[in-house]
Design a protein that fits this description.
Helices cover 15% and strands 37% of the residues. It is built from two helices and twelve strands. The strands form three sheets. Strands 1-2-10-6-8 form a five-stranded antiparallel beta sheet, with no helix packed on it. Strands 7-9-3-12 form a four-stranded antiparallel beta sheet, with no helix packed on it.
């Protein structure tokens, strides 16, 4: 009887050892890092209204530029493009019923690197239109990078006959929209 119990124990030990040799003590997991694109663009809250003031003869002759340092703040995971457009083909006189306009294309949008901006980006001056136009392009992303934007109105007395008597000043307005997209 002792021999049978001993044989059974030896058999179980051998089977157990064989069972462990046939099975592994490890397994695999696939780990994925899933990166989704994030692009944000914020206009400086103190620069939500931009005025081009024509006050002197020199302003009408040479045009007026309004520089806005650190006008846009960009956050982008990877390359991106910043686009600009006007809501209308012409800036309209804010006095209802007047009917006079100024062509949006007479105004240039001029981007440059802002404080801590994108050193390797491409900055392109564009005339304001109703179509999205790329003014900044970068192959790399960044965190809270600044872009300065200057707005330049026409010279050569282009707006000379847009003043309306009784309005001081005569104001023409449009909405400018900036958009950021991944590239």
């Amino acid at each position: 009887m002792k021999k049978q119990v001993l044989a059974a124990i030896v058999g179980l030990i051998g089977f157990s050892s064989f069972a462990q040799i046939g099975h592994t003590n490890s397994d695999n997991v696939t780990l994925n890092v899933r990166l989704h694109p994030i692009q944000t663009l914020v206009v400086n809250s103190g620069q939500k209204i931009v005025d081009l003031n024509y006050v002197t003869k020199a302003d009408y002759a040479g045009g007026v530029t309004n520089p806005n340092a650190d006008h846009l703040t960009v956050y982008s995971t990877g390359g991106f493009q910043v686009k600009v457009k006007s809501s209308k083909a012409a800036l309209e006189n804010v006095v209802a019923g007047n009917g006079t306009t100024i062509a949006s294309e007479s105004i240039s949008v001029i981007p440059t690197a802002g404080t801590g901006g994108f050193a390797n980006a491409t900055y392109s001056e564009k005339k304001l239109t109703t179509e999205d136009q790329t003014i900044v392009s970068s192959t790399i992303g960044g965190v809270d990078k600044k872009i300065s934007v200057a707005y330049k109105g026409a010279g050569a007395e282009e707006y000379l006959n847009n003043y309306v008597a009784g309005q001081n000043p005569t104001i023409y307005s449009t909405q400018v929209t900036y958009t950021i997209v991944a590239q």
